[in-house]
Amino acid sequence: MATATLAGSIPAGTSPADAESAEFLNRDLSWLEFNRRVLHEAIDPRTPLLERLRFLGIFTSNLDEFYMKRVGGLKRQLAAGPAPSGGETASPADALAKIRTAVLPMVQQQAQTFLRDIYPALSQNGIRLLGWNELEPGERDQAISFYSASVFPVLTPLAVDPGIPFPFISNLSTSLGVVLHHPESHENLFARVKVPEVLPKWLRVGDPSNAGPMRFISLLEVIRHNLQDLFSDMAVADVMTFRLTRNADLERDEGEAEDLLELMEEEVKQRRFAKVVRLEVSSGANPWMLDFLMRELELTPDDVYETPGEIDFDDLRMIAELNVPRLRYEPWTPVIPAPFADEDADMFSVIRSGDVLVHLPYESYAASVERLIRTASADSRVLAIKMTVYRTGEQSALIPSLIRAAEAGKQVVCLVELKARFDEERNIHIASALEKAGVHVVYGIIGLKTHAKMILIVRQDADGIRSYIHIGTGNYHAQTAKLYTDLGLFTCDADLAHDAIELFHYLTGRSLKRDYRKLLVAPANMKDRFLQMIDREIGFQQAGRPALIVAKMNSLEDRKICRALYKASQAGVKIDLIVRGFCTLRPGVPGLSENIRVQSVIGRYLEHSRIFYFRNGADDILDGEFYIGSADWMYRNLQARVEAIAPVQQRPLRQRLWEIMQILFNDHRSAWDMNSDGSYVQRTPRDASEELNAQQILMNMARQPAAPKPV
């Protein structure tokens, strides 16, 4: 029970709900605090100007996904009626009210940051974002000409009257709502004009060869000031920009499904028509039109968000990507990992000579993972290739390699996770292409998402059949490999290879195996093993032996894990955590968690790698246990997904992992320390030596590889 774990820090008679609130932070509010840290990168003047603009868009896209998934789920719970009372969680209505209270000031701050800081700074740096009335006569002619030739034919104005029903409005599309008056009547009529997604969101005007400022006008502004062409002889009385967010948290019954592929195809279709959970409108919204939209979309005032800035800051991506080096981060080209530097060397021989650890995006995904699959597909000694795909890019180089391997007669198996949210449609297409080429495609296990990142290659070596594996922390996705920090282990360790074979048998053949030699596999043994290792540290602490837990992950929420960490803290075990996103554990609470430190690192790259360390009584730090893999300490990862975490066994690789974590812990530029109430405080450099953030230090180290420093 929670009150027992708190060891008397909660007064007697405290209700279960209040006890739980004292023990754990609200997941959704903690996630919003993470997005606040993302927004701070846009606010921080130390961030290059165009990157500040990019962070405004990231904040928006993060919030969009939050409303589709988390708010959508709460709305569905609210509509379903009260759940059986357990006294442990806030009601959906209370949760939604707290979310709105937290989001409103952040949305206002986002808009103010753009209007007061970034917009003027862009102008000062020769990037002018213009309103219609700011265009020079020649520029206005350019805009009108572009509108007539490229925009007007694409637009589809949709009016609403007794003979025309309210139009379907797609998720996250930007629209102009128009109040029309007939020449003989002042009755308000509504029409909707969708801003085309197939056209660039910003139009450059003027002479591009001119050395002066770059001048742009938004597509939205161009349409807005040419609306009369769409409604000949009607009076345009008012115009309002708006945007809808639809629920993506749909119920599915996999147990009743005869075909998982058909079920997911149907869900993708249904999502287009899911209930609206948020209506964003431009400031000064027309009251009649707003009331009309709320009635038609069945919304309440609490579902409406008015913004004084851009309706969708992600539309500014085109401006953020302008080639102005002095306003961008320094360009980075991932280096080739040293063990794979010889392009003519046999990768399998390299891996046989010793495990290889690759750190993305500092090191090259193309020169490591893609090269491995490409080599395996062309190698006549390779008998089989098996891999998992959770998310991958449209132009993934891995898919053609797998197809070539299948066409060459190799046994090729690919587990494509159809339930990867927002990538369902892409994964359905990938699965279809692979199946047509003869690849054995499986869709995972009913009731579980397969989130493990693993490649297994079976090869006939000179001394017998050997299996080579790659276990990673990130998706096999070439684009995110340049933007996310991830780790990958290349090994032919016999025990790990045996475990990988067993795991693929579990995924493809319904094996019920639950014991593995070295791998931690969810939902089979991972959670129990983590709990055992946490408890083991308590034993070492109580015996006067070295005890320490260090972990890095995206999110921390699993309550059994949190309570085990509280117990370890109370026993005196030092626990250092790097949790990029939300964290429901409360650090630094006297009598509960004073030995737990939590920090978050937000920077140029998304911190996505998962690293776990347990001192295990070792006198030498590097003799403790190190693990990397795909799982966070969340209930869904540990019990509702197939995950894989592998030990890193060779000492040089352990030393590298320790060094990475120490660099992150010592960051005073991009690190935030978490308080026990869930708030965060950004660190400030104490002197010039601390001005570089951890990611910049790791980039510099990758440029000039050196022997690891002694620990």
Structural summary, described in words:
The chain is an alpha/beta fold and 711 residues long. The protein has three domains: 44-327, 2-Layer Sandwich (polyphosphate kinase like), CATH 3.30.1840; 354-509, 2-Layer Sandwich (Endonuclease, Chain A), CATH 3.30.870; 520-703, 2-Layer Sandwich (Endonuclease, Chain A), CATH 3.30.870. A hairpin with an 8-residue loop joins strand 5 and strand 6. Helix 3 (27-43) runs parallel beside helix 5. The longest helix has 33 residues, at 92-124. The model is unreliable at 1-8, 84-88 and 707-711 (pLDDT under 50).
CATH topology of the largest domain: polyphosphate kinase like
Structural class: alpha/beta
Question: What does the largest sheet look like?
Answer: 10 strands, mixed
Number of helices: 20
* Number of structural domains: 3
Binned, the helix content reads 25-40%
Report the C-alpha radius of gyration, rounded. Answer: 27 Å
- Average pLDDT over all residues: 91
| CATH superfamily caption of the largest domain | Polyphosphate kinase middle domain
The first-to-last residue Cα distance is 40 Å
Percentage of residues in strands: 15-25%
The shape is globular
CATH architecture of the largest domain: 2-Layer Sandwich
Task: Kindly provide the name of the CATH class of the largest domain.
Answer: Alpha Beta
Indicate the low-confidence ranges by residue numbers: 1-8, 84-88, 707-711
